[in-house]
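Lecture 7 notes: from sequence to structure.

We start with a single chain of 327 residues. Read the sequence below before looking at the structure.
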Amino acid sequence: MVYGDYTGHIRKTILNRLLKMRIVYIAILVLAVALVACKSDRQRNEELPDTPSRGTITISADETFKPIVDELTKVYESNNYGTKINVQYKPEADCVKDLWNDSIRMVISTLTLTDAEKRGVSDSLKTPVDQLPVARDAIAVIVNPASKDSLFDMNDIRNILAGTYSRLLVPVFDGVKATSTVRYIIDSVMSGTKLTSKAVAAHTSDSVINYVASTPDAVGFIGVSWIGNPDDDQQLSFLKKVKIAHLKSNDSEGKYIFPVQANLYGRRYPMTRDLTYILKERYRGLGTGFAEFLRNEIGQLIFKRAYLMPGRRYFIMRPVQLNEDSI
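Now the structure, written as tokens:
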């Protein structure tokens, strides 16, 4: 019995040691695999020209949205010190051309591709294409402070654009072709009616504001991100030069409203449009990081503070009393 007990003790001791050795071996194996994987990921990231937190890319953006895109890139770069996003501001038609430009990583505009168009770009560049609306914008109608007309319904707007309004009012755009504002006006407002030959083409959105400020009979059409934020010093200076006109609401008979966030939600304001990014990227790079930023909380909060309607996050909208004299 004593010998048997001793033998059993030896066997148990050996088995315990073997079990401990196996556990140690497995732990070493797991650690080795993790180290190899980390090293592989590190090497892979070092081989990539850019990542969400490192590198430089070029994107193309509709000039209409310059104020908000400037703010978005500034905040992203400040949160990711190793990044630089070079933005080329252009008319929307030129942004469309950049979809086939392999050096342009992303396009930000009101353009939305059909499934067939996405496949065409993807097949041409051998690159996955992703798009997503991230905010809702509006076209603001601005008039000279001395203008007698500041309340319009959409029939009035169409008549102004066609040159058949009761008074001679001159429509002013950031160009008479190629821009997102003009495309929206022609496609969604005019519906085939010809634009008046008296329409004026200003060079940029701020040029539209300056033209209207100096021309009593001018009516300007610009993206609300240029003039809708009374907390921005530059936009506040614009608001001292011109008035934002009221447009007749889509859902309230006889009510005329401003292009503010509460009215963009549900498209109560009649001239609204979505701001969309189109991303072309073969790997998880800086473009992907910026796209995630646009649709996540910080980016969406920036859209909200710029007085656009966030498209991917819900924020509580509280009713406010607007002082018409300050708008």
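The first strand starts at residue 54 and ends at 62. Keep this in mind for problem set 3.
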